[in-house]
Amino acid sequence: MKKYGIIGGTFDPIHYGHLMISEIIREEMGLEKVIFIPTGNPPHKNDILSADIRFEMTNIATKSNKYFTVSDIESKKKFVSYSVDTVTELSRIIDGKLYFIIGSDTLFQLKTWKKFEELAKKVEFVVAMRPSYMSTKLLELELNYLSFKYQAKINVVEIPLYEISSTLIRSRLALGESVKYLIPDELIEFIEEKGLYKTNGKSKK
Ligand code: ATP
Asked: Pick from 122, 102, 72: which is nearest to 6 by CA?
């Protein structure tokens, strides 16, 4: 059975941290493709860029990798989707097993996700483990808890520590600082062309 990775995020904007973990996990787990899924926009929430623009930026940033693709399954909706619903919808069109990629910080939130038990039956998780991000003991405890309580299947892949975030990119752009080597050049061009992230903190566009 073919394996497909999925990685969801606000991607406001997508950066080399997202791209790097996806590529390492794709190779390590033998995935056919990694599908990037930018989230939709919560109604009345204007502190993130529009879903359409985040979708477009994700397309630009992933274009050079033939194993990467972008889905508008969440961004085209007018509300924020729950992962369990996204996965159910995706399973109807993808013939293969889904591997849900998360950062190590997200691992500890999984049990609070809507219908986590149902989600855990539909996918395997892959945690992008940053070295010395947390104690191995804590991680093991959480992994044991999730697999015992929900029969969740969780793979752990070690990735290099690359401490960047979309928050950092937004604040550098707002201050007019360089984001070269933090996001792809084509994405920098797009952001400049459209004049995005010019205000400090989160953009209102
Ligand atoms: P923000 O700064 O706006 O909160 P972010 O950079 O954390 O954004 P998200 O879109 O929220 O980006 O992240 C999607 C997923 O990517 C999350 O599971 C997160 O843990 C993971 N991730 C983000 N940045 C990194 C990084 N530098 N290294 C490893 N994983 C990362």
From this structure: 102
Answer for the pair 139, 104: CB distance below 8 angstroms, yes or no.
yes
Please work out whether the CB of residue 162 comes within 6 Å of at least one atom of ligand 1.
yes
Where the chain has pLDDT below 70, the residues are 42-46, 132-134, 200-205
Do the beta carbons of residue 191 and residue 13 sit within 8 Å? yes
Q: Write down the pTM of the prediction.
A: 0.94
Q: Identify any residues that bridge with 131 across adjacent strands, giving them in sequence order.
A: none
Which backbone phi and psi does 39 adopt, to 5 degrees? -70, 160
Query: Ligand 1 pocket, 103 CB below 6 A?
Result: yes
106 within ligand 1 shell (Cβ under 6 A): yes
> Which strands sit side by side in the sheet containing 123-129, from one edge to the other?
68-70, 33-38, 3-9, 97-103, 123-129, 154-158
Do 84 and 43 touch, CB atoms closer than 8 A? no
